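G., the chain you wanted modeled:
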Amino acid sequence: MEIIEEDDLQTLSKQMKADKLGLLVMFHASYCEYCERLEEDLLVPMLRSGEYDEKILIRKIQIDSSDDLVNFNGQTITTGQISTLYGASMTPTLVFLDANGEEQSERILGYTTPDFFSAYVDQGIDELYKTVSTQPG
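Predicted structure as tokens:
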């Protein structure tokens, strides 16, 4: 099981609205060892557990990729542009987004020890879920 590299946030947004889900995005870079560790230590186990399936989707966006992606508003932009939009110049950066692409929890920059880190991620997910679960469909 692996984290999906997202390229169409507009389509994802429709699923998020229908299922009342938030989105956790890890902005990463090809050269980022901490990104790989974060994915292996925390994000993949979160996905595998099934514990978060009713609250969030987990995706990643590679900021040093030459690929374009579709933003929440349907506009095609570069991965560099979207990382700038979310202030994700440092990798890894985790952002917690609602179906409109708006941040609903404080973003997390960098990756430290897994022990405390997962608590911060859970807190961000809980804040995000409180917002998305009460938004009108």
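The domain at 4-127 is CATH 3.40.30.10 (Glutaredoxin).

Shout if anything looks off.
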